[in-house]
Protein 1
Amino acid sequence: MKSTPSDGERARPLLVLVDGSSYLYRAYHALPQFNNSRDEPTGAVYGVTNMLRNLLKEYTPDMIAVVFDAKGRTFRDDLFEAYKAHRPPMPDDLSSQIEPLKQIVSALGLACLCIDGVEADDVIGTLATHGDQTIDTLISTGDKDMAQLVAPHVTLLNTMTQQRLDRDGVIAKFGVPPERIVDYLALIGDTSDNIPGIPGVGPKTAAKWLQEYGTLDEIVAHAADVKGKIGEKLRAHLDRLPLARELATIRCNVSLDITAEQLRPRAPDRDALLTLYQRLEFKRWLGELLNDAPARPGDSADTSKETPRSADTAKPPPRYETILDRTSWDRWLARLSTAEQFSFDTETTSLDYMRAEIVGVSFALETGSAAYVPLAHDYAGAPAQLPREEVLAALKPLLENPAVVKVGQNLKYDMSVLARYDIHLDGVRYDTMLESYVLNSTASQHDMDSLALKYLAHRTVHYEDIAGKGSQQRTFNQIEIEQAAPYAAEDADVALQLHETLWPKLEALPGLRRIFRDMEMPLVPVLSRMERHGVLIDTGQLKELSAELNRRMEEVEVQAYEAAGGPFNLGSPKQIQEILFERLQLRVLKKTPKGQPSTAEPVLQELAIHYPLPQLILDHRALSKLKSTYADKLPELLDPETGRVHTSYHQAVAATGRLSSSNPNLQNIPVRSPEGRRVRAAFVAPPGHCILSADYSQIELRILAHLSQDRGLLAAFNGGEDIHRATAAEIFATPPEQVTAEQRRSAKAINFGLIYGMSAFGLGRQLGIDLEAASQYMDLYFTRYPDVKQFMDETREAARRLGYVETLFGRRLYLPEIHSSNRQRRQYAERAAINAPMQGTAADIIKLAMIRLDVMLRDAPDLGTMIMQVHDELVVEASLERSLETAGIVRETMSSAASLSVPLEVDVGTGPNWGAAH
């Protein structure tokens, strides 16, 4: 079909009618690309809004209305009491999106129609029919019923699939013209609306009859001529057809008091959209709005003195000063020297804290006022700047003064960079990244750009805005001061604004305030010291391991080729898919979003239970990952100055409170495989030292015993029993000494599976037993440990009631999908509700242990230095002479980090390398 002419070309006005209710429902249930994957409660709103924005951009209509169904009964309910009666109540997380969507529609300047007692279809039909002779009408809908409205100047558009239907399109799709669509619908019925049709009559039969007989009335008149069982069904249900036809007919004579002028798009309400996009966290559109902010009096491109910059027109423009002379610097230094608190940020040449050089520093004493001190911009034509050594020397007493409160974003980085200049940042009291993370770990990302949009409705200047992207991106020292200054000053200003927004929220929640004050903030300098100390690695061992892994991969390849019946690329999902599911005809367990058979790891693991090739593919992947990620990569990460590897720990990533790490990722080195142990063996101690590994023993099961207060678990742990053997003895009613290795393995799978909310199906798959046997194991477990079952039930109920769960120390994990109508998402949230209190408590305990151990080791530096934290394990580079003493201190510190109803046991080992110590 020829596309609708653009605004400048079309001869007739264009009216667009959008089926709002239908799209909201479809965006919620159907297409993933229309959902905001991070936040389900606003996902459908996002999808429909995105559709509307694209519709407006492409068609620039002269008139437009978004039409919604009204609550309550309509004439169809009066005609047929069972009309839509089978539909379940609308899910809460869908109904809650109706009002925000309507608010956005109005804020976009579009007519939002919802007529009492009338369905959206009938409102759209009336508007489309009345305008047919004078205007072009485009009906945006995914509802097949609307096909009856297609006429010479009325076209349908399914904006989700981009399918357009004119008269020929309707005939091609349904087999009948628009004027026969009602007859067609009456014959086939509509299960979604509970409209009864003729049993057994589908779209092909209905279209065939209408092509043969012309109309529904003629089909009824010739019902006796229809052969076979389908003819019998037609004759037996002829009485249904009049009602079905009336229910399916869109009424085009609804009394509407609406003028063409009311349908003309208005200018969007920018302030209302700002509020809505901020509340719903639609960051990209919020950023677009803020970028399009009109210029204000006082805005200037000259940043050499003071640079007003603000995206929020409701606030006065900020005062950003660039300090290039001693008089200005002395004035700011005097202000900083008398301040009790200030926001601080460094600008550097690199994200690598071990190599970054300071290019400038910025400060903010009050919101809306900040200064940038450029120190090492060295591009051609750069103006004279204050000497870096002189400025840092003047700042050193202030930055090291614990009584002067420092505010910033991700201050661990600044702390590590300053340490290279012999400045030991102290008084770090408020980190806005951690304030946001503790307040709600799952609500958003915790970088400054995201937080500014979420909490301040402010789009910050992004680094790419001034430095460029990709291979052409400049380092900060190469950026003109006129561009660099407002960016840097804004960092300090926004950090202070975020603190003033976030801290009152944290203060109002004592449990979270304690997590922030007593755990997360004290951990910052501990992690900074660990990162900067780093760990030695033996590159020779890694080179040997790389060669060995390569040989192993070649061996696995040969075996895989034999199992597959020929060579293929083991790194190609497409080729693996073809061999497993086409050549070998293995059962398809799961499909990708594009409908192809999945070759993801969980799928291969399940197939590997019965077939050799999937296991070989998994083995090859594991070996390849070890080789590329560790054996080959670790030597490249060696710092040339220290000769050590320096990871980066992240406090604000894992939702449960656990630390993560990168460059290298220490958390993902396999513990159980021989190859993984070889990687660990390459982490070595320097001469005169050993590696000391201290690992909490079964800490999450011990936390489960404490939280559930189950008498059986408490007795087993307090009696020093092997918990898996004790569990097996309970489940299988066997004396502990007679428990077999297989029974203990099953009990271990149940013990750890419970922590992660494993179902009987998951247990059966892991143990290789049928569902019935796995269910019996689970039932026996809960019979023997009834308080565990009660704890899990109560935890799930509390999560549904509160929307979050808490660790023993008060850390919260919010579960926005706990009420989701999507069963998989809801079940995932329920599993997280069980796991989070245990995993989060374990994370809290080891953080407390790290803080206390750091104090002890700093007081006695010859004992050793904490160098790594991995899951439930702390690693110390200890003095050989005093390793026994160090081991005792580490064990005592970790085991006393929390007081539980069962002892916290710590396994400690030492050796020349990490592999030998663990």
Note: The chain is about 50% helix and 10% strand.
Protein 2
Amino acid sequence: MKKKHVLSLVCMFLLVASGGEVNAKKPITAIGCADLIAAFRYTNTTITSATLKLEGEESVAGIGSMPEHCVVSGKMNERVGPIDGRNYAIGFEMRLPTSWNGKFLYQANGGIDGSVVKAFGNNLGGGPTSNGLIKGFAIISSDAGHTADGGQFGIDPQARLDYGYNAVAQLTPMAKSLIKTFYGKKPSKSYLYGCSNGGRHAMVAASRYADQYDGILAGNPGFNLPKAAISQIWGAQQYSTISTPATNLNSSFTPAEFSLVGDKILAKCDALDGLVDDMVTNPLACQTVFNLDTDVPTCPGARDGTCLTAAQKEVLADIMTGGSNSDGPLYINFLWDVGIKGSNWAFWDFFASMILDPGAVAFIFTTPPDYPPQDPATFNGPAYTLNLGGTGFDPGVDAPKIFDTFGPYTESSMSFMTPPDLTMSGLFKHKSKLLVFHGVSDAVFSSADTIKWYEDFLDTWRGRAQNTARLFLVPQMNHCSGGPSCDQFDMLDALVKWVEQGRVPNSIVAKARGAGANVVNAEVPATWAPDRTRLLCPYPKLAKYIGGPIEDAASFRCVPKVALK
């Protein structure tokens, strides 16, 4: 047999053995999992545990069993806070699959961080489809430099910066070094993703650390989080004026009344995209068509779920502006959208504004932190939000403090929490890609804010813009998922194909999670097929019906909005 034929057979055998894929995941590690504790060395970093998890030993709801992998826990930059005397460190977890795809994924977590969420790489779009570990990524998750404490870590100046941007800066090179120690080589590609505050982390990384990441995925990004938080508190104060008692914000609007508003929006705007299908996919056009005063009945008497009182209409109209004080707007407006009937909308407006936002505003975003007079041991979130007794948040006095610096607090919250360069020029320099998605009916981080950012981005970079960053709006979806929407999609796959294969994401298929889904969304409308699919289109394009079954994404294509009719 000729030599070249022998080589061909050998190559064919290797290809079949690897599953027929050139980039198949290979079960190769340089050292054993437990050996990492002794083998890994990195400045100011301690590995506290390294445990091998066998295939099927762990599972994720709605996704299934996890492959064999090494779970590594550790911490960086241990110290004692000079002001509050508390112990601080950047805690992290890494999950390193035995069959590695050669790539690194940073899992940016939500809320105000404070806990090391399991580094499975979940939530790659809206509802769960797969995760990064199953796909073969080496993944890191962190607490962003503090433990969960209702925001009180903001008393420490360095903890503020770690939360804002420095944890990502510290963890990224460390994680790549640990990957090299375990696998014997550094990752070929690096990705970062997150939703909510994780989406903010992603936008900040795109601005500050584009040289470290080939692709970044930002979902419902709260990149103006301090503004959004004070807008939430301002909104709670408005709701309280029609609540009985004032602290029971749930009494201001019932689920039936929010559903009424959503249904009236649907009635006015459903046909704007050229198809009546119980779905508004042209939300910007809807803003000039829907009118709260004339399209929603005003109650002639008592509330009964079929109307709104004049006072309710006034408050809701104010809420949708994003708030203001004597100096002007506090935040941007929110979009009128069917997803206002989603339970997640009320959660952010009624619960988060009273429990989650007050600590963040008082201790993290206010400079200097509101300490004293706010005593962390006795801090009362609802009292602070509603300014009960005049000792809480005053929009006229306290809102400007998100722009202040003071003494050891050398950066304002609008400096350490937001992307310093919203033009994302580093993406172009390093040829990185950015995908952004946002549920139109996000009650805390307005989709209008992300749209405004992207329109400015398009104006700045013009023809180059969409070759580097793309925005996908998800009609009727609430914050990161949920609402009467098609909210199940995998943005990470689209990002990887864009980065590694040059396959530009011209559309992404999203699926409803009705009856029979792996994780059911109870808010999928009964008028839809439970597995309805729709195209998500890169802004400013919209999905146009071209004929065929209306429950199938194949019956649509993405077109410029002027081509809708």
Note: The first strand starts at residue 26 and ends at 27.
